[in-house]
Amino acid sequence: MTASAPARAAALREALATRVVVADGAMGTMLQAQDPSLQDFQQLEGCNEILNVTRPDIVRSVHAEYFAVGVDCVETNTFGANFAALGEYDIPERVFELSEAGARLAREVADEFTASSGRQRWVLGSMGPGTKLPTLGHAPYMTLRDAYQQNAEGMIAGGADALLVETTQDLLQTKAAVLGARRALEATGADLPVICSVTVETTGTMLLGSEIGAALTALEPLGIDLIGLNCATGPAEMSEHLRYLARHARVPLSCMPNAGLPVLGKDGAHYPLSPSELADAQETFVGEYGLSLVGGCCGTTPEHLRQVVERVRGMVPGERDPRPEPGAASLYQSVPFRQDTSYLAIGERTNANGSKKFREAML
């Protein structure tokens, strides 16, 4: 008999609080490796979410490969099931349908492995960034938020155990996804963890220039259950940012790096980090930064995750003594509410020369 949705969510929260939980690795490359046809994509080549409906066998097989190596949870094949990404294929009205289908497939495979192993397996509902950055005016914030709510409601209906807002590059887009997820939970009466994973580039900031401190200050008050990093880089480049989160975040931490930085070769890009190197890094991070959730992103395979599972099995997150620093954040950085001998000015640069109305108002 399978556990109820509230019981699964409670068990996941308990696991995250008491041990290291392991998620899966890359999804898109494993789907593409099975060479789906243009017909499988309903003529929308590259729209992996369509495969939830047309080729459930392919999607199930990827989930099964990861569960077979011992991971605790898999992500749904819904990374692009949002307004921006499906809008590129002119099918934004299918957000709920494809989200529900993706979660249902993962739920079925998770339940099969739970029944056969006697160990609870979970489903993380993947909410990707899409292709529109609201800070740059690519799409209205409200439109994105409402579509993320549909995305989340679909995955809740399909049986997801948590909602994972991941690979975020614009803090306004991140906020749209997190609040869309929270509105979905409220609308459905569900009580699932909300995990938020930002992407910090090799430049040391998110794509639009946000420092990790700005992300923490902006996102933690939205009621997220975990915060962490995924994509863009390998573990080596994430260490400094994880250290910051470990020192300041009130909530537990996650880390899902790529298998290193991509290296261009004659056959295209490949990711150089070996399974044992990823396992080494995650074991170190668990001890040093107290990670509760680990996994992999681009370039990671079931073998990568098998070695991570072996390495962190039985580990508990390392001790953390976070010192949260109250502050306010712009898009770019967090400014702590800390005064020395000077006064603290919070304001906006104004231009009295460029606007006659503003100059008159000032006068």
CATH architecture annotation name: Alpha-Beta Barrel
Number of strands: 12
What is the residue-averaged pLDDT?
A: 95
SSE sequence, one letter per element: HEHHHEHHEHEHEHEHEEEHEHEEH
> How does the helix and strand content classify structurally?
alpha/beta
CATH topology: TIM Barrel
Global Rg? 21 Å
Sheet of most strands: 8 strands, parallel
- Strand composition percent: 5-15%
The level-1 CATH class: Alpha Beta
Can you list the strand order of the major beta sheet?
Answer: 1-10-7-6-5-4-3-2
Architecture overview:
The protein has 363 residues and is an alpha/beta fold. The chain has one domain: Homocysteine-binding-like domain (TIM Barrel, Alpha-Beta Barrel), CATH 3.20.20. It contains 13 helices and twelve strands. An eight-stranded parallel beta sheet has the order 1-10-7-6-5-4-3-2. A two-stranded antiparallel sheet has the order 8-9. The radius of gyration is 21 Å and the shape is globular. The relative contact order is 0.12.
